[in-house]
Write a structure and sequence with these properties.
Chain lengths: ~375, ~250
């Protein structure tokens, strides 16, 4: 262990003097938080739309002979929809248009995202048993599906609001914002990303300058070199996790846990996830002869991690054909665990499949890198 | 230094061969080096000098042949050898962001030198190799010569019984090269260290106890510098080398 400790101290000494790398390793996770925070924290609202509301109050009288069997005065549902839509703040409504075709032109000209037509007698046809099947017409700019989705959702909500309300109770994630969902994933990504990048570049550099072959000539087992890296980078992972937690809480109000046990669970999960990135980097570093070759591993590893680990795209939405790749990535389980701890408030169960998979991945690549770490 | 033939054999190589693809890097090489001897493997680039050292250290596996270093069969017992040997590779293998002192002390500890001796040995080498003005400078800020002196100190800090020094004087000025050789003589004399040095500076070989002239993976001649000069009727090692290869196809 003496050799491992020596390697860890040496790595920290070097890292503390390499201000650019140290700065990147601590500032870049903040950048991730800001980017995710701004990109996913900001909700889409005030989308410009045109509403042509031709609806009016309905007086429904149904007679059988001289006997009135149904009589009802109903306020225009179209007005309620427009009010609910207006109050949602998701859209900015312009009601100056009267002609639907002109409104559609405005959507084509990109001045508005959607033209909404609530037709004449909408209320009557909805309420009256004799009413026709009539619907609201939309002319929607779907060039940005996210914005279009917000408009559709706002209209649907307004329609439901005007018909009656829905009571929702949350099992988990009461008042959960998008950024709260991404916070734990940023820890997983940041820790894995930096352990992988820094270790692979460091080892390629050591191989090129000849210090690694020289270390391998020292009278210690080479496994201790890997352990030295583990010690040094566990500390880095812990620092990065702290930075992300503090910054996210301070600037985006993300809560990661309610007790010390939650935070300990987060740190253990993050550090173990960092180990998986580290051993993968050590293993792959043996197959790269230069930094240029090592850089080519980055998109090969990091892109699947971003796209397939459930960081951005939920696993359920990933086509089944490539979902198996997701199941092989340690980050998939790291993200899942960190979200469970932060959002669902559970504590880390070291016997859970997610945690055991990460340990399994770590051990496999630890043994792999122990074999692949050679002088030549 | 006169060669003492009674000294035990430290390195013994028999019929050693190594190929890389179509290239025969080392070809049926036989060699013995005695304890406390400074042996110089001299030859042009690509003669097979570095490959021979790497085979002796067990970094490479031979295609055929036997290697024994201090009684250890290499590559099988290479780990035992690591405890008693010093190795200076061709590259100046130093950590850029550690100071001269930190580099030497790091390698001392990495080689298992006891805590008590780490500082003592480091200080001795700093003094012997005139590194005092540079001890607190980061390695990447040092001149090439100082980097090489630091790398040599790092290689010798564990007071090795056998030192493998691969082109230790490459890129150094003549004064520093002479200083390096004086240091090799000093440690061989004082500590009985066996030193294997490779170089492509042919005239440098004059300072060794014995010289092996290497070309195309083979040793063409092996003897003391004086006898090699006498046998070829030349006055310097460079002319001796050209005399030897005269008429031998490349």
């Amino acid at each position: 262990m003496r050799f491992a400790y020596l390697i860890a101290i040496r790595l920290w000494k070097q890292l503390s003097r390499d201000r650019r790398t140290l700065g990147l390793a601590t500032v870049a996770p903040l950048l991730f938080v800001v980017l995710f925070g701004v990109a996913f924290g900001g909700e889409i609202d005030h989308v410009p739309v045109i509403v042509i509301n031709q609806d009016s109050d309905a007086e429904i009288v149904i007679k059988f002979g001289i006997i009135t069997i149904f009589e009802e005065n109903v306020s225009a549902i179209g007005n309620s929809i427009v009010t609910a839509l207006d109050l949602s703040l998701k859209v900015d409504i312009n009601q100056d248009y009267t002609d639907f075709e002109t409104a559609k032109e405005e959507v084509v000209n990109k001045r508005y995202r959607c033209a909404i037509l609530i037709p004449e007698n909408f209320t009557y046809n909805m309420v009256s048993p004799l009413g026709d099947n009539i619907s609201i017409s939309l002319y929607l700019d779907n060039s940005d599906p996210q914005i279009a989705g917000v408009v559709l959702q706002a209209i649907s909500d307004a329609f439901q609001d005007s018909a009656g309300s829905i009571t929702v109770e949350y099992a988990y994630g009461d008042d959960l914002r998008t950024i709260d969902f991404f916070g734990p994933a940023i820890i997983a990504f940041g820790v894995f990303f930096f352990a992988f990048i820094l270790v692979i570049m460091n080892l390629i550099g050591e191989r090129k300058t000849g210090t690694l072959p020289l270390l391998l000539q020292c009278p210690f087992d080479k496994g201790q070199i890997i352990l030295g890296y583990l010690f040094a980078f566990s500390l880095l992972s812990a620092i990065q996790t702290t930075v992300i937690i503090l910054f996210s809480s301070l600037f985006f109000g993300i809560t990661f846990g309610t007790s010390l046990a939650h935070y300990i669970s987060i740190y253990i999960t993050a550090i173990v996830l960092g180990w998986t990135g580290l051993v993968l980097a050590i293993f792959l570093s043996s197959f790269a002869r230069s930094e240029f070759q090592a850089v080519q591993f980055i998109p090969t590893i990091i892109l699947p991690v971003i796209l397939l680990s459930g960081i951005i795209i939920p696993l359920d939405q990933i086509p089944e054909v490539i979902r198996w790749v997701a199941y092989l990535l340690p980050t998939t389980y790291g993200v899942s665990l960190l979200r469970a701890i932060s959002i669902e408030g559970v504590l880390l169960n070291i016997f859970s499949f997610e945690f055991l998979f990460q340990i399994f991945f770590f051990v496999v690549f630890l043994l792999g890198s122990r074999i692949s770490l050679r002088e030549t | 230094m006169p060669l003492n033939d009674k000294r035990p054999i430290d390195i013994e190589i028999k019929n050693l061969s190594k190929t890389f693809g179509d290239v025969q890097a080392v070809n049926q090489l036989d060699l013995t080096i005695n304890r406390g001897e400074i042996f110089c493997l001299v030859g042009p680039n690509a003669a097979g000098k570095t490959t021979t050292i790497r085979l002796m250290l067990g970094i490479l596996k031979p295609d055929s042949g036997l290697i024994s270093v201090r009684g250890y069969s290499i590559p099988k017992e290479k780990k035992k050898l690591r405890k008693i040997m010093g190795y200076l590779p061709q590259q100046r293998a130093l950590y850029d962001l550690l100071t001269t002192r930190e580099n030497i002390e790091f390698f001392a500890r990495a080689k298992g030198v006891s805590n008590k001796r780490v500082v003592k040995n480091t200080n001795q080498l700093i003094e012997k190799l005139s590194l005092e003005p540079h001890i607190d400078k980061l390695a990447y800020l040092l001149s090439g010569g100082t980097q090489q002196r630091t790398a040599l100190a790092a290689a010798m800090v564990n007071e090795p019984q056998i030192a493998f020094l691969d082109e230790p004087t490459v890129g150094l000025d003549p004064v520093l090269r002479r200083e390096f050789w004086e240091y090799f003589r000093e440690i061989a004399r004082e500590h009985g260290t066996t030193i294997l040095v490779t170089t492509h500076y042919l005239n440098e070989a004059e300072w060794a106890d014995r010289v092996g002239v290497m070309r195309n993976g083979r040793i063409m001649a092996i003897d003391t510098p004086e006898k090699l000069l006498e046998q070829t009727g030349q006055h310097n090692m460079e002319n001796m080398f050209f005399e030897l290869i005269k008429g031998v196809s490349a």
